[in-house]
């Protein structure tokens, strides 16, 4: 009975759609005959379509069941490769330790000019020019 349910639903949908769209241009009896043909046609066509989808879904389920825990995809790496990798890591860690040493920030110190009794007019003019450009 489960096989026929999907076929009946699709065929009934086609029947109603055909009947409603055909009523606008044809008599009721003509529309009923055309809708009935559509019902029978789609009821029969749905058998191979449903068989195909049921077959595909069972194959997918079988593949999932067969792959689950059936094989181990692991390989042991070569010992020489492991030694190379460990040596590279040691070299990299030693280089990073040297570069990570703390160096305090040493900003340049600002020197204060001694105030002179006589300010040179050229120095004042240069200072004003420098400050005005900034």
Number of strands: 0
User: Regions with pLDDT < 50 over 5+ consecutive residues?
Assistant: none
Structural class: mainly alpha
Rg from Cα: 44 Å
Return the average pLDDT rounded to an integer: 79
Q: Which bin fits the share of residues in helices? A: over 70%
Overall 3D shape? elongated
What is the straight-line distance between the termini? 91 Å
Largest beta sheet, briefly? none
Question: In percent, how much strand structure appears in the residues?
Answer: under 5%
Number of distinct helices = 4
H/E topology pattern: HHHH
Give an account of the 3D structure.
The protein has a domain at 2-67. It is built from 4 helices and no strands. The mean pLDDT is 79. The chain has helices at residues 2-22, 28-67, 79-99, 121-133. With 134 residues, it is mainly α. α1 (2-22) runs antiparallel to α2. The protein is elongated. Helices cover 71% and strands 0% of the residues.
Summarize the structure.
Helices cover 71% and strands 0% of the residues. It has 134 residues and is mainly α.
Topology:
Layout: H1 2-22, H2 28-67, H3 79-99, H4 121-133
Helix pairs in contact: 1-2
Fill in the keyword field for this structure:
134 residues, 0% strand, mainly alpha
């Amino acid at each position: 009975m489960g096989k026929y349910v999907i076929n009946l639903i699709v065929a009934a949908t086609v029947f109603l759609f055909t009947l409603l769209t055909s009523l606008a241009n044809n008599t009721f009896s003509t529309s009923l005959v055309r809708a009935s043909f559509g019902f029978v046609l789609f009821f029969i066509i749905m058998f191979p379509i449903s068989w195909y989808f049921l077959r595909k879904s069972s194959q997918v389920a079988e593949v999932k069941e067969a792959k689950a825990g059936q094989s181990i995809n692991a390989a042991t790496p070569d010992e020489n490769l492991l030694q190379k990798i460990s040596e590279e890591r040691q070299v990299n860690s030693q280089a990073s330790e040297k570069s990570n040493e703390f160096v305090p920030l040493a900003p340049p110190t600002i020197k204060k000019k001694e105030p002179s009794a006589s300010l040179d007019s050229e120095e004042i003019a240069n200072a004003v020019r420098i400050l005005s450009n900034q």
